[in-house]
Design a protein that fits this description.
It is a single chain. This protein is an alpha+beta fold. It has six helices and five strands; from the N terminus they run H-E-H-E-H-E-H-E-E-H-H.
């Protein structure tokens, strides 16, 4: 690879690290291209991407970014996944993929908005509900309060009407 091509790769990687909410460093050995493409598609759905690059280029690209603390994990066959919008979705995809492919894909370490986290922390992060689910729960909680309030306000006149109806029926039966 010539120098210009290396500079382009470093610039692209550096830009990815600068914009990332989460970065995960993994080792891949013996994965087929189709399996790696399956992972790429799954990550793309979560607004994330995975890149395979030389370790020296990764070390240069990660300098002066929030993920500089991951540079010691770049050794061997390295793949770096970065997520741009929210960290839970990519964490779920990567931990599921690591569980499915076992020794062929192992997570070495990760960074969450600049702070380094372990593979166990990434697993715990992947068990959290995603952004969409949390927004749904928030919306449900926000609509539950006014709905309950309206039901309480409606109960008073409704019970009054039941009482009037009962009095009317009692008078008619006499």
């Amino acid at each position: 690879m010539d120098r210009d091509k290396k500079n382009e790769v470093v610039d692209a990687l550096s830009d990815s690290f600068a914009r990332a909410k989460i970065a995960v460093v993994a080792e891949y050995r013996g994965l087929k291209v189709s399996e790696l493409e399956k992972l790429r598609r799954s990550l793309r759905e979560q607004d994330a991407q995975i890149r395979v690059a030389k370790n020296t280029l990764l070390r240069i690209a990660v300098k002066d970014t929030p993920y500089d603390n991951l540079s010691d994990t770049f050794s061997g066959s390295t793949a770096v996944a970065v997520g741009f919008t929210e960290p839970v979705g990519p964490a779920k995809v990567l931990t599921a993929f690591a569980k499915e492919y076992g020794a062929s894909f192992t997570i070495r370490g990760a960074g969450l908005e600049g702070s380094r986290i372990s593979a166990e922390d990434l697993l715990a992060l992947s068990k959290l509900p995603g952004r969409e689910e949390l927004l749904g729960k928030l919306l449900g909680a926000m609509t539950a309060v006014p709905t309950s309030f309206v039901r309480v306000l409606n109960a008073v006149p409704q019970k009054f009407m039941y009482a009037l109806t009962a009095i009317k029926e009692q008078k008619e039966n006499q």
